[in-house]
Amino acid sequence: MTLDLEALVVAAYTFADEYRVPFTYGRPPLVSDAELIALCVAQAAMGTSSDRQFLGLVRRVLPGWFPHLPDQSQYNRRLRGLVELMSMVQQRLARWLDAGGARLADGTALAVASYPGCQDHSHFRGFARYGYAKSRHCYIWGVRLVLITDERGLPLGYTIVPGNEKEYEPLSDLLSGVPAEVVIADKGFWGQRYGEQLLAQGVKLLTPAKVRTPENLGRERALASTRLVIESVFANLKGQMHLELHLARTLPGLAARIAMRILALTVGMLLNTLASRPARALAVYDGR
Fold it and tell me: What's the per-residue H, E or C state across the chain?
């Protein structure tokens, strides 16, 4: 199997085309929903944050593949309305690829605005909050993406919450839709009461010990090695796919930009699994 951006686009189109959304009025658009899903997966894999820049590049990267391209405003508007379809396709693929076993959970902060007075004038007003970004060692005004994966890094569920909110409650909500017996998380999930709450739901929470000793050194190293998987998932999303440079101006726009990257990651993992390659080796899909 030849793995490249074209294979990723074909796979995304094929799976999205199985879901047909009827038109209630007017003429059908020249670009179908499945084509838009294929386009946004290509955009995520290429790491192009600007919609306008991507629509200019795609004719050169995939010549003749999309004879009719929407303009930038139409593309942005229609993608915001396709978040549910992206999630449906991604969850279907995730169910196919999920091998069970322990789950990994973590969160990461995403800035949504940084200009003076953004908390009063931004479209994220009322949802975004100031929160600490560990990777940047500073406070940012934004949201927190909470993600749960399997041991290979396959996204099984995600949500976004205000930037100052802990991952406790979002993880509990995600676990209601994801079968899990063991969840491995970092020290942000410390708390005896929270661990007991999850245990009552049939889920065992494993977090780093507050103090490393010779007796628990082996356990701590094993947990740290496993947690690196979800950290590398965030590296995929923020590195190759430039999630931190999302350029979203509204909450629906941010939801679309997150969903398209999660879907692109999942489709890439599917193709890699079929080709017996490392699951998250996504560099081959960047179109270069």
Answer: CCCCHHHHHHHHHHHHCCCCCCCCCCCCCCCCHHHHHHHHHHHHHHCCCCHHHHHHHHHHHCCCCCCCCCCHHHHHHHHHCCHHHHHHHHHHHHHHHCCCCCEEEEEEEEECCCCCCHHHHCCCCCCCEEEEECCCCEEEEEEEEEEEECCCCCEEEEEEEECCCCCHHHHHHHHCCCCCCEEECCHHHCCHHHHHHHHHCCCEEECCCCCCCCCCHHHHHHHHHHHHHHHHHHHHHHCCCCHHHCCCCCHHHHHHHHHHHHHHHHHHHHHHHHCCCCCCCCHHHCCC
Highest mean pLDDT of the ranges 37-51, 102-116, 177-191: 37-51
Asked, for residue 112, whether it belongs to a domain, the answer is: yes
User: In whole angstroms, what is the distance from residue 281 CA to residue 277 CA?
Assistant: 7
Domain of residue 219, CATH code:
3.30.420
Domains: count for the chain: 1
> pLDDT per residue over 82-106, tens digit each?
999 999 999 999 999 998 889 999 9
pTM above 0.85, yes or no: yes
